[in-house]
Write a structure and sequence with these properties.
Two copies of one chain form a homodimer.
Chain A: E1 2-6, H1 15-28, E2 33-37, H2 43-47, H3 59-68, E3 77-78, E4 84-87, H4 96-100, H5 109-117, E5 123-127, H6 134-142, E6 145-151, H7 154-173, E7 180-185, H8 192-204, H9 219-226, H10 230-233, H11 238-251
Parallel strand pairs in A: 1-5, 1-6, 2-4, 2-5, 6-7
Antiparallel strand pairs in A: 3-4
Helix pairs in contact in A: 1-11, 5-6
The structure holds adenosine-5'-triphosphate (2 copies) and magnesium ion (MG) (2 copies).
The site of one magnesium ion has 5 residues of chain B, from helix 1.
Chain lengths: 257, 257
């Protein structure tokens, strides 16, 4: 099973949108796919029609059980998309950092849980919260590839430096280097600030950045209202076509780090 | 001194943009104004040209000193806008939840610090991270009014229910009820999903919602590139005009809760 994480400490850059779009495409292509919601806010869980305030069990239970030393089977939920299952988030995840505190050994909970599931799925995509904490650390330890959506605007560029520093820190504690792809999102070619930010991103991160950008597409909001990935609801929209090209590049065997 | 917090657990809804726009307007109207960055990602701090990775002292030091029992004076930074000062964030804030753990009494650190500053400023606006944790709890305990930006799209509506539940929990532990205003943002009248979400918001929260909405305005990105509030760079843009009307409503003496 290939495990991809979608992360960025900046909020609202398109992490959940990237997760639903790529997972939607993989499922539509017949690959059995799991999406994992590690965001206490539960956007991915809400997206597929579940309530993160009340859902049980959830990703929270992985940690609760690990703290007690047991690791039963995890309950996954079906989604409205064939070949696509969900490991939901609960709002209780927000208490983890405080509860676990400086306790060691809780960085590999998600990795172990996904290893136990690896026979059932070909791909697992992890949606991360916009915060560096135990949940993001777990996602970075569990994945073998990372996607970093970055909004093409100035503040997001500043924020990306922080994400890259975090990655450099994480790389030191991994045996294999973690390949990551920077995915420019919410690109609006009519806005000077958007065009200039994209150029700056390309200059600063030439080896990691995807060669294109996901354009602003008002149909994403429509898709989230229907609780289906854009690629299922509007397969030929600008957004779907862009995510299809991104997926093709990420799937290349020799895909650059 | 009036203290307003700008919070929403959902990322990318316009919290930092609302903080810079309202604070910019207050400063331009001659009110001495402080902006406080409690987001470990430091968008507000970066916005005004400082680096949250290296800046010292910062809001983090308020907590570090409180944990040691001392509370010296806090260092504020000037911004490029007359009458506007900044209490910056440092990325070290991200470690607070883990470090403080279940330790009690750390919910009033920001409130006490702002009380010590109340003679120097007429308004203090607190920008919050997109996560329910010790930082947001501090902001909600320190403020006498709350603004909740909500993007006019479906997922953000689901997320707002969570924010409102959080507020209901907080209200129980406050002596005075906390008045809050829901501010619809990133409104795009050309998109059905945006128009329908706004209608739904108005139906669900008639007493708390602002009567208008902040429109999508590409000039916000331009302003953030220049490190100045939109209201300073493009005072007659659609975004600035909308924030001016919001400010006028929030300043009304009998402003609804
Ligand atoms: N390419 C796009 N075009 C138009 N809207 C988009 C696009 N990508 C994302 N959006 C919209 O932007 C908003 C933020 O996206 P999303 O929730 O995926 O970001 P996020 O990084 O997951 O946010 P958070 O930090 O809260 O987890 C959503 O309303 C989404 O519908
Ligand atoms: N009315 C608007 N029109 C157009 N763009 C906007 C508007 N409001 C905010 N933005 C843009 O949307 C992005 C997100 O806004 P902002 O960073 O203020 O959100 P936030 O809620 O503070 O995010 P975070 O959760 O990361 O703290 C920024 O690029 C900002 O420039
Ligand atoms: Mg998300
Ligand atoms: Mg912000």
């Amino acid at each position: 099973m290939k495990v991809w994480a979608v992360a960025n400490q900046k909020g609202g850059v398109g992490k959940t949108t990237t997760t639903t779009s790529l997972a939607g495409l993989l499922a539509q292509r017949g690959h059995s796919t799991l999406v994992v919601d590690l965001d206490p806010h539960g956007s991915l869980t809400s997206y597929f029609g579940f309530d993160p305030e009340t859902i049980e069990p959830s990703a929270y239970d992985l940690f609760a059980r690990a703290a007690q030393g047991s690791s039963d089977t995890i309950m996954l939920r079906p989604t409205a998309v064939k070949n696509l299952s969900l490991l939901p988030a609960s709002t209780a995840l927000a208490t983890l950092d405080r509860q676990l505190g400086a306790r060691s050994g809780m960085g590999l909970v998600v990795r172990r849980a996904l290893q136990a599931l690896s026979g059932r799925f070909e791909y697992a995509l992890i949606d991360c919260p916009p915060m560096l904490g135990v949940l993001m650390v777990n996602a970075l330890a569990a994945c073998d590839r990372l996607l970093v959506p970055v909004q093409t605007e100035y503040l997001a560029l500043k924020g990306l430096e922080r994400m890259v520093h975090t990655l450099e820190m994480i790389q030191r504690s991994r045996s294999q280097p973690l390949p990551y792809t920077i995915v420019p999102t919410l690109f609006d070619r009519r806005t000077r600030a958007s065009v200039e930010s994209l150029e700056e991103l390309r200059q600063r991160y030439p080896a990691q950045i995807w060669s294109e950008a996901i354009p602003v597409d008002t149909q994403f909001r429509d898709a989230s209202r229907q609780g289906l990935p854009l690629t299922v609801v509007h397969p030929w929209s600008r957004g779907s076509q862009a995510y299809r090209r991104l997926l093709d590049e990420v799937l290349l065997p020799e895909a650059p780090a």
